[in-house]
Structures are given as structure tokens and as C-alpha cells.
Request: fold
Amino acid sequence: MPQLGLLHGRAWTVFLGQLRRPPGAVCIRAVRSHSQDFDIAGQFDPMIPDAECLKIMCEILSELHLGDFLIKISWKDVRHEMVVKKGLAPEVADRIGDYVQCHGGISLVEQMFQDPRLSQNKQALEGLGDLKLLFEYLTVFGVAEKVSFDLSLARGLDYYTGVIYEAVLLQTPVHAEEEPLNVGSVAAGGRYDGLVGMFDPRGHKVPCVGLSIGVERIFSIVEQRMKTFGEKIRTTETQVFVATPQKNFLQERLKLIAELWDAGIKAELMYKNNPKLLPQLQYCENMGIPLVVIIGEQELKEGVIKLRSVPSREEVAIKRENLVAEVQKRLSES
Reply:
């Protein structure tokens, strides 16, 4: 997966590394060409894993700096779920349907609690209790303001069995120069308690809840934003390239790159014994590598290293022992 230069480094850490394993849970990670998933499987008390999934979704979208977003939550096939599966009377389900055009947070759930036609039904109270509990956990997590209860939300996949959610970007661009984005949802998920059992010969049910991040849609947003600001898409994380203009300097290059690696600097070199200098410099420009360390006979004799800025093509000679410190300083300033 390419790194897009505009994204903050921590965003990708959250995005691709946000797999936490609750005690006793089985976490499933499915990486496909178009999405990144996070799932929690196991029997737990109501709404705790569901709240964590929504918290993770908020963390990822916030760290990616895509702009304001809203996560809508509902549950699958509201009326069918309540009449056929939960055994609610049709008139009670229809009363809940009156709220389909409404959206809000815990205040909407509490309003439904106070409706006498709902509060007198045990199943309705249980469902509303779960939703209230979910919003309480989301408040503790500090993300409740990013979540809206919206019964008009519907997701087409049949395997969802309970709470469903979908994240959409609000139309306000991050910067004034940008055009409004219209990409639909960028993340979605929900509870699917029956899916795993479909693949178990014994029909063993494993409650699951998860989320999926739309990688391709997010990439298209980032690419559009970078084009707007004339920024280049970087396909490598390399910070420094070690080069030489002369033959028989492979070992010297290896010494330099080992020193950079040991200091935690992302560096690379050309896998050739005697590469020509021009192709090495062109490679750096094409890949957007910001710095080049150059060593040759003259530099070796004088105990210095040439440090080249790829964007400006300016070169300075620095003492060999100051290489790591100077590179770290340049990288921190960029």
C-alpha cells in the first residue's frame, strides 16, 4: 500500500495497526484491495465491543484529517427486525417508524423511552436500553458528538443482525481552495451474529461486530486534495538515499547506510556494485526522496560527506561524524 505524503504518519499507524485484542476475544483482520477491516468476535456484555468499534472508526477518520465526518447508527431492517424477529406488535413497530425521519444522540433515545407506546413494550425497552448504553459508552470515549442515531440508515447486506453504522464526510472542505467532495460513505460496519455460524458445520454461533474502512475512497480523496495543492504522491517512505559517483565504493555505501539504519533513518541504496551517479539522482527525484548522501574518493580523503537536497539540488559538505545529526536535523525541519 503506497504512502501518501499528505497523511500524518500516525494516521497510517492507526489506520493499519489498529488491531487490539480484548481478553478472550478473537479479532479477525481481513485485508482486501479496497478496504481495511477490524472485527471483534466473542460473547461479551452488550454494547462494549460495539462502542469500541465506533471509537476506532472515529480515531481512524480523525487521524486521516479528511475533514468533518458523521457516523450514523441504526439497526438492520427496523420494522422486520422488530415484528418478525423480536416479536413486537406491528403498531409498536409502526410507532418506532414515526422516528425514522428523526436523528440525534442520546436525547432522541431518551425521547423514545418516554413514548408510552414504546415504554410499555419489553422488547422495545430492551432495544432502547442497549442504544442508551451504547451512547453512554461513546460519551465516556469522547466520541458521542460524532455519532448520530438515524433510523433512516439502511445497509444492503443481509448478514447484519443488529446495530449498523456508516460514516460519511460532511461537505465542508478542509481548505477553502478545495472543491466539495462527494464520495458517499468512507467507513461502515455493524453487528453480524449469524455469519460465522453459516460456515460452521455444527452451526455454532459466534457473535461478531466490526467495521470496514474504504481504502480506495479515502485514497481518491487524498489524491484529489494533493492535486489541488500541487503536492506529489510519494510511493516510498525512504528519507535518505546513499549514492556514489565512482566505482568500487559499495562497502563505503554499506557502512553509511548501516549507520543511518541504526539511527532509525529510512535509507536505501542502489543494488549495484558500480552504479552511475545520474541514474541514482534521477531515481531520488522520481521517488520524492528528499536527501542524498554522496561519498567518493575526494570525500573519503577529506573525511567529509556530501549532503544533497533533492528538491533544491543544493549540496553541502559535512564532517563524516556529523552525518546522522545533520540528517536528523534536516528531516525534522522538513
